[in-house]
Prior knowledge:
Elements: E1 6-11, E2 14-17, E3 28-30, E4 33-37, H1 41-54, E5 80-81, E6 86-87, H2 96-104, H3 113-121, H4 128-135, E7 146-152, E8 155-157, E9 164-170, H5 185-197, E10 202-206, H6 219-234, E11 243-247, H7 251-259, E12 264-267, H8 277-284, E13 288-291, H9 311-328, E14 336-339, H10 348-356, H11 358-366, H12 370-373, E15 378-379, H13 385-391, H14 400-412, E16 417-420, H15 423-442
Parallel strand pairs: 9-10, 9-16, 10-11, 11-12, 12-13, 13-14, 15-16
Antiparallel strand pairs: 1-4, 2-3, 2-7, 5-6, 7-8
Amino acid sequence: MKKSGIQITRHACLYETAPAYVTDQPRFLNSAVRGITKLGPHELLGVLKKIEKDMGRTTGVRYGPRPIDLDILFYGKLKIHSEILDVPHERIWERPFVVAPLIDLLGSDIDSDTVASWHSFSKHSSDLFELWEKLGGESLVGRNGMKRVLPVGNNLWDWSSKTSVMGILNLTPDSFSDGGKYLSVEAAVSQVRLMLSEGADIIDFGAQSTRPNALKITVEEELDRLIPVIEAVNKMPEVEGKLLSVDTFYSDVASEAVKNGVHLVNDVSGGRLDSNMHNVVAALRVPFIAMHMRGDPSSMQNPENLQYNDVCKDVAFELYERLEEAELAGIPAWRLILDPGIGFSKNTEHNLDILTGLTTIRSEIARRSLALSRAPFLIGPSRKRFLGEVCARPAAEERDPATVAAVTTGVLNGANIVRVHNVRYNADALRLCDALLERKLYA
């Protein structure tokens, strides 16, 4: 689409759905995008049909299997009726698998006259939100053959089916909790094996410390620590079916790590410390974890970076700006994971407010983009200083019980992934959280 003069500005979530009409066929993937083009509506239709053809679509059974199906749902404020094109698309109103991604392209606040006109086109409802509710709304997601998924490699990750555990592997001499423990490949592999045996779903490799006041190392130094361990871990039979993540703010490190088998890029700056990061990740077509931080690790705890009017609302706004930059660079919403940055540019009170205010952060992001507000949320409170301050535990390794409490609070308030040092304790806590949430959902 980009090559054809269509600038994509927003992406919906990605939905895996049961086939409609002709049901004896594989499951479908559905999404939607919002964009800007100088092409007229019929020119646009011609471009989309050419894209379909180039991707292997041929004439077949109506509603039957096909590699791709592109439709124009809306075109500005226009209503169009011709022999080959109807806008709005005539069957939007009866199809949850179309309305769900369409709603994702909106914010709960109406952002333009054009969007207001889309709401006015809605049949049998006062607006698109009411239409979605009449079709079943959020109650349809996770049931009735529809679920939001995140593409990772050749698989689709149903991240909402259970809370995921990300085990931390610091390949650094100076990390605040376990710096120096896993500098050798043998020690690192042994720790990965332990975390996987204890229930880790994701292993997060970090070869550069991001503790407060940490100094940067070079790309070359980071890769020298990182690549031998990734290569060794990928040879482990236990890693089959698990995800590997690289914790870096360098795009060159992200690129090399993905080439060597890593599945996700985890950037504490959300792309702000390397101007090439978003473009590189977009080209790599891997999920991107965008975290909120002000400044960099050496300056993030400076007084000017700890000033908030309302920490949850301010974090939501600043995180949304990073996500919007990523999306405009070509990283779709269905490949984004959000991290509010516990311990980064935050004091103890801020961290506590975030743990209990994740729903506020989601709702504030939803005002601008429902798709981004529905992305997976990751939290990383593990062994951090604020837990030591609250519990009078100056030694980081003594903060695991407090970490379990923090993780439990975050998950019950909407977190989907937790990044932790002690996988065993937190995996048990998450099993209980998931059981509680399931009871609440189906009560």
